[in-house]
Amino acid sequence: MGTSPASPLPFVKSKTPFRPRVSKPKVRTGCIVCKIRRVKCDEAKPACLRCTSTGRKCEGYAQSMPIQGKDTSTTPEDSSVDSDSNRSFTLIPVLSGASVDATERRSLHFFWLATENDISRHFGDDFWRGLVLQMAHAYPAVQYALHATSALYEAYMMNNDAGLSQGMLDIPTSRAAMLRQKAVKLLSGHMLEDRLPRQVVLTCCLLFVWLEFLRNDFDAGLTHLKSGLRILLEMEQEQKQQLHTPVSYSGSVPTLQDVDGTISHMFTRLQIQAAIHGYPTSDFNSTPLRFPSEAIIEHIPQSFRGIAEARHWLDNIVIQVFQLIRQKQQFEASQGPAATLSPHWPLLIRARDSHLVRLEQWHRAFRNSEHLTHTPGAASPAIPLLGLNHAMAAMVMKNLFSESELTYDRYHADFERLLGLCEASLRHSRRETSGPVLSLDVGVLPCLFYVTLKCRDTAIRHRALHLLESAPDREGMWHRNSIIAAATWKVAMEEQWRGRAEPGKQLLPESARIYREKVIVAGTQRGPAKVKVRFGGGPPGSADVDWEVNRLLSRFGDMI
After folding, report:
1. In what order do the strands lie in the sheet with 438-439?
2. Separation of alpha carbons 178 and 147, rounded Å
3. Close Cβ partners of 367 (under 8 Å, ≥ 6 residues apart)
4. Residue 21 DSSP class
5. How does the average pLDDT of the chain come out, rounded?
6. Distance separating alpha carbons of residues 515 and 465, to the nearest angstrom
7. What is the pTM of this model?
8. How far apart are CA 373 and CA 464, in angstroms?
9. How many whole angstroms separate alpha carbon 1 and alpha carbon 21?
10. Is residue 256 very low, low, confident or very high in pLDDT (cuts 50, 70, 90)?
11. What is the CA radius of gyration of the chain?
12. What pLDDT is attached to residue 244?
């Protein structure tokens, strides 16, 4: 794909002190900008005073359009869309109408399909189809970024080779490249002049992350993720300063209240994903970047009011869990064999114990929330996904300081429970399109990979490999095909050494087990790459050479 590497967005320091976040009901009337800001609009015509009095540009009022069932006015270009996805384009009323040409109409259709199977929708978040579409109507930078993402999804959907390829997409993505460049240029100019609400900038960051992940350019995607996190953390810091040093507040400057809570949580989810994946050149491995606190309080509640609240609490624990794992790895790499003798080592163990306590507190609160698990909504993938995220985090923490891979043999029942939760999630997921499922959020792929890496029971491992075949094509940075390639390679290697060491023995001997696999040679930049992997353990001498793995994405991460 002939595009230049993504450059980070200019980081503009806000001039504003911030107030504590107050929950507000959704605004259903008023101008487009006030709806996006979730503030009450005075609805003056032609431009509302709420916008003009604070120096904002009022974008007017969206035409109210009823949601219809079928759109019969399709163009010849529209009719080429896969018949399984021929839902009405008027499901997107804020961007429908005569002002939308056939190309934009097609793009919105594919964006609608792309977001249909995103994991976040199972938790009641309709961010992509609600707030993002409203902002795309009001802000060209968001619209360009949206259309670029849509163009890449269409490339996957309409070209089987592109959908299966593990390299960067080549066909047909020239339009996506052009739109992406327009979005970055427009956004950069507005940010330098501080003319955009922070919420709009952060939404563009999220779209850019998704766009670059689809292109498999993880460096660029993580750069955009860090840009968004810096903005959120600066806002949080200035809010704290405001609490300690009250100053007069000017309503003309954006505050933390202008940022929808869903956006902050999506950045936390992406940061978790980056920490788990372990992309080789990622700062998320070596530096535990701070994350937006989202108004975390000291104690986990006795029960949760809803699925979203339960997920927010769990994610705020899980991000710390995987940051601790990367901290420990970096500490061991820097200290060598003397790591366990360092006075810092007991602090790491204490942090592990603290996270286990908080995970148990969350689990207790979740069990107390019977209204969540005994309602019609309990049949959605959300419930098993919450259980899956909790169980995997707890298991990783329990084994963080294990000195032998044999320790995992005591957890076969836990591995089976993880697979049961994965099965429940996949069973409840309704695939409403025939195209690939390319979710930005993460569901079952990391957990299924973890089971194949750490469980040496043959039946459980092969069950996990079987489930991978029916998992989504992509979950953020995770490629199903790459995971299958890596897992199949590891299982074959260990089974080969099992036979060499102790034929007929049910449990895999420790001498046949490998761990801490890491991609060390990043093969080609295009197509299924042949890459090399180094690991610890295995028979004598096996860890001293580089092993070639076929069909593994060269930008694969550091396996936990």
Report:
1. 438-439, 474-475, 478-479
2. 10
3. none
4. P
5. 77
6. 18
7. 0.78
8. 25
9. 42
10. low
11. 24
12. 66
